Amino acid sequence: MQPESLAERYARLAQESPRRGRDVALRGLDLLFAGLFGLVTLPLTLPIAGVILVTSGRPVFYRGERVGRAGRVFTMLKFRTLRAGAEERLGAFLGPELVERTQEEVTGLGRWLRTTQLDELPQLWNVLRGDMSLVGPRPIRPRFFEELGADLPAYWQRLVVRPGLTGFAQVRRGYETSMAEKLAHDLEWIADRSVRLYLRTLAVTALRVLRQSLRGLVSPRRA
């Protein structure tokens, strides 16, 4: 019998953790707000998809594997912000070199989408599907999950809830300096999650995205 992998072990621990009754309420809010946001942003999503298609061709969406609740791997959607084929060209690089080369691959529209965070609008579909929540730990690639799980024994606790489109580690960005500190924010949400905290996190996120969007319109970054 093969030994249990880290991902399998953490998934089992997450499944054994008791589910909270308030998670049902939070799921209801996810469906309500994701559906509402999806309708409100439809006048943006369709033109964005069209511009990507016209200026850089297919695919319109970036599709990446992420680890979800209880270790279930799902496909996360984003608007594509890199040139076609960038994933293959960047696959051999890590660390600072990867960051530098990624910046070289960002399209003109992609740079603006990243600045305003509009590239993440397609994740509303992931929320409606049940892959994600509007609030929770950010989803992570399976390979990175294995690596971080080995370094941070408490990392499995992120699997107790659905990953989020936004979360504590995002609204408090600038204070954390390590993955351990980001994990601390995630664990705080998992322990204290409530409707009030959910709504407050969404409100802070909305204000931050609005400021970034206005900044991007006034002084857009050059490609």
Brief summary of the model shown:
With about 220 residues, the chain is mostly helical.
Describe the fold and architecture.
The chain has eleven helices and four strands, in the order H-H-H-E-E-H-H-H-H-E-H-E-H-H-H. It is mainly alpha-helical and 223 residues long. The longest helix is centred in the C-terminal third of the chain and has 24 residues, at 195-218.
Terminal residue distance: 53 Å
- Class of secondary structure makeup: mainly alpha
Average of pLDDT? 82
Fraction in beta strands:
5-15%
Largest sheet: 2 strands, antiparallel
How many helices in DSSP terms? 11
Q: How do the strands line up in the largest sheet?
A: 1-2
Number of strands: 4
Query: What is the string of SSEs from the N terminus onward?
Result: HHHEEHHHHEHEHHH
Question: What is the 3D form?
Answer: globular
Helix content: 55-70%
Any low-confidence stretches, pLDDT <50, length ≥5? Answer: none
Query: What integer value in Å does the Rg equal?
Result: 18 Å
Q: Which key phrases capture this entry?
A:
223 residues, 58% helix, 9% strand
